[in-house]
């Protein structure tokens, strides 16, 4: 049994750290029952097409195999593109057996696991982290939604049961939001390799740019 944690910091917005804690089958004491600790760092800095850097806005686990990343990517004309990228962070039950996971992990020595646990633990050294460069090609292949118009995303939340899962994306003005049907799949073009998109809610048509406005806030 494993627990995954995804963390990004304001001081390093181009990276996302994914921690994997492997536990025994029965947990009675967190410190005692952690059998392994591994880390992976996703680096999006090489995905930029201008002098500006890509920026991780938010990240959430969708299920046992997919990690959703709300990403801001600079374009050649110096504008910004806001997208949701879905990356396989582990080979879950729905993954193909031959699929190679993009996110791979570097295990910490078992003897050092205890010294990195909260509340008194120290951060693992950067050399112990598996740094994975996420290229622009990888982002384009795994992009599941591109935000258009004047909507600029800030945060996302994932909820619902399988087959009826939705993503709610809060706008940067904290007054507008988007609702995306995560289990909706558009038809693929003959020339596309992995073109899969999520559908927005019908209520988005009420606003010219597809935004939904919240009262108050």
Commentary on this structure:
This protein is mainly beta. Helix content is 5%, strand content 41%. The strands form three sheets. Strands 1, 2, 3, 7 and 8 form a five-stranded mixed beta sheet that branches. Strands 10, 11, 12, 13 and 14 form a five-stranded antiparallel beta sheet that branches. A four-stranded antiparallel beta sheet has the order 4-5-6-9. The chain folds into two domains: 146 residues, no CATH class; 68 residues, no CATH class. The relative contact order is 0.14.
Low-confidence stretches: 186-196, 201-209, 213-217
Oligomer: single chain
Which class of secondary structure composition applies to the elements?
Answer: mainly beta
Residue share in β-strands: 35-45%
β-strand number:
14
Shape, please? Answer: globular
Order of helices and strands: EEHEEEEEEHEEEEEE
Biggest sheet features: 5 strands, mixed
Distance between the termini: 40 Å
Number of domains: 2
Secondary structure layout plus pairing:
Elements: E1 2-9, E2 12-23, H1 30-33, E3 34-43, E4 55-61, E5 66-74, E6 80-88, E7 106-107, E8 130-133, H2 136-142, E9 143-146, E10 153-159, E11 166-171, E12 176-181, E13 199-200, E14 212-213
Parallel strand pairs: 3-8
Antiparallel strand pairs: 1-2, 2-3, 3-7, 4-5, 5-6, 6-9, 10-11, 11-12, 12-13, 12-14
Task: Jot down its keywords.
41% strand; 14 strands; 2 helices; disordered C terminus; 5-stranded antiparallel β-sheet; mainly beta; 217 residues; 5-stranded mixed β-sheet
């Amino acid at each position: 049994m494993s627990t995954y944690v995804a963390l990004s910091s304001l001081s390093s917005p181009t990276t996302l750290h994914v921690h994997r804690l492997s536990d025994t089958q029965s947990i009675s004491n967190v410190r005692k029952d952690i059998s392994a600790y591994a880390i992976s760092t996703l680096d999006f800095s090489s995905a930029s097409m201008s002098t500006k850097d890509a920026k991780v806005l938010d990240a959430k686990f969708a299920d046992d195999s997919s990690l959703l990343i709300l990403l801001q990517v600079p374009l050649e004309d110096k504008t910004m593109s806001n997208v949701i990228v879905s990356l396989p962070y582990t080979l879950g039950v729905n993954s193909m057996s031959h699929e190679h996971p993009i996110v791979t992990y570097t295990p910490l020595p078992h003897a050092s696991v205890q010294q990195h646990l909260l509340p008194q633990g120290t951060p693992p050294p950067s050399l112990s982290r598996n740094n994975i460069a996420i290229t622009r090609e990888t982002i384009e292949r795994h992009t599941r939604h591109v935000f258009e118009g004047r909507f600029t995303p800030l945060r996302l939340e994932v909820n619902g049961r399988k087959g009826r899962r939705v993503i709610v994306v809060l706008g940067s003005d904290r007054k507008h939001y988007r609702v995306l049907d995560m289990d909706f799949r558009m038809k693929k073009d003959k020339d596309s390799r992995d073109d899969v998109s999520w559908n927005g809610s019908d209520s988005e048509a009420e606003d010219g740019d597809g935004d939904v406005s919240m009262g108050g806030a």
